[in-house]
Structure formats: C-alpha cells, structure tokens
C-alpha cells in the first residue's frame, strides 16, 4: 500500500519542482491619474450641394411655313404658264416652285414675330468645404511617480484604467 502512495507523492513533488523553473506573468488592472489630454484634429473635406438660380431672357420666334408653301405653289403655276412646250412647262414649274418658295421664305422672315420671355434657370453646384474633426487624444498619465504617454480614441477624463504586467526576471 505504501508503494501505491509513493508514486502520486513523487509525481506531485516533481510538478512543484518544475513550477519553480517556469516564468509566470501576472496582470492586474489599476487606475492612474491623467496629467494631460490633447485632442488630435484632422482636416476633413466634405461636399455641400447648393442650388444656384438666375433669370435669363429667351427669344422666341413665331415661324410659319405658310408663306414658303404658297410661294412654291404660285411660282410653280407661273412657271408652268410661261413655258411653251411640254418639257419647258415642266422645267418652268420646278424652277418657279423653287424661286417662289425662296421668295415666300424671305417675306416670312421679314414679318416674323420675335418676343422675349424671362425664365428662371437653376442648377445644383457642389461646393467643397473643410472642417476640423477630433480623431483621437494624446494622453499623459502618472503611475507610481512615472509619466507615460498613449493615444486613445476617447477622452479618458481624470483617471485612466491601465493594465500592469508583472514578469520575473531571469
């Protein structure tokens, strides 16, 4: 029976002996006093759409196709009457129609009515603007008489929670 008790006792002593040669690390959360907080700014560009409006004077023409059409009909009829033979009558009709349309168009331009209207025009224009944004904080804090520095994404206030790691030398 003693033989069966010695083996576990030997295993336990051996584990304790090995434990003395291992390196243990121990970590604890503590509070440290904040001594200085400085915001870190970054310049950010953003687009602002703005509607820009103005008034514009627009010209409108009153245009009619009646005068050139009538000119072509009258010119064609006259050209047909002036021709003596069948082939001359055809050529006279075509030439008369073209000249009549041209004369009718010229007359129509002289009598066209122009009028002006004021219309509102608007367009969206993007304007780039800049603003300063806080992107983090440079923080100085005191722990056991020493000053340490870190960068945080938030303002920690008067105290900061730190993690202290203890590792034996050797």
Task: Summarize the structure in short.
This protein is α+β, with helices and mostly antiparallel strands. The protein has three helices and four strands. The chain has helices spanning 2-21, 66-82, 86-110; strands at 26-62, 113-143, 146-152, 159-166.
Detailed description of the structure:
The protein has 170 residues and is α+β, with helices and mostly antiparallel strands. It has 3 helices and 4 strands, in the order αβααβββ. About 5% of the residues have low confidence.
Please compute the radius of gyration using only Cα atoms.
Answer: 50 Å
Summed up, the helix count is 3
The helicity comes to 25-40%
- Counting helices, strands and paired strands, the structural category is alpha+beta
Strand content: over 45%
**First-to-last CA distance:** 42 Å
* Average pLDDT score: 76
Any descriptors?
alpha+beta, 4-stranded antiparallel sheet, about 170 residues, rod-shaped
Write the layout of secondary structure elements.
Elements: H1 2-21, E1 26-62, H2 66-82, H3 86-110, E2 113-143, E3 146-152, E4 159-166
Antiparallel strand pairs: 1-2, 1-4, 2-3
């Amino acid at each position: 029976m003693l033989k069966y008790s010695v083996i576990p006792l030997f295993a336990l002593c051996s584990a304790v002996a090995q434990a003395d040669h291992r390196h243990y690390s121990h970590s604890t959360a503590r509070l440290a006093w904040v001594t200085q907080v400085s915001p870190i700014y970054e310049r950010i560009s953003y687009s602002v759409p703005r509607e820009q409006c103005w008034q514009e004077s627009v010209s409108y023409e009153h245009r009619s196709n009646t005068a050139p059409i009538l000119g072509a009909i009258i010119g064609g009829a006259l050209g047909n009457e002036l021709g003596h033979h069948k082939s001359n009558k055809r050529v006279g009709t075509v030439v008369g129609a073209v000249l009549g349309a041209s004369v009718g168009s010229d007359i129509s331009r002289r009598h066209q009515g122009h009028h002006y209207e004021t219309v509102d025009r608007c367009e969206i224009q993007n304007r780039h603007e800049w603003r300063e944004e806080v992107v983090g904080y440079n923080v100085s804090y005191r722990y056991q008489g020493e000053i340490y520095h870190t960068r945080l994404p938030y303002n920690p206030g008067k105290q900061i929670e730190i993690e202290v790691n203890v590792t034996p030398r050797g």
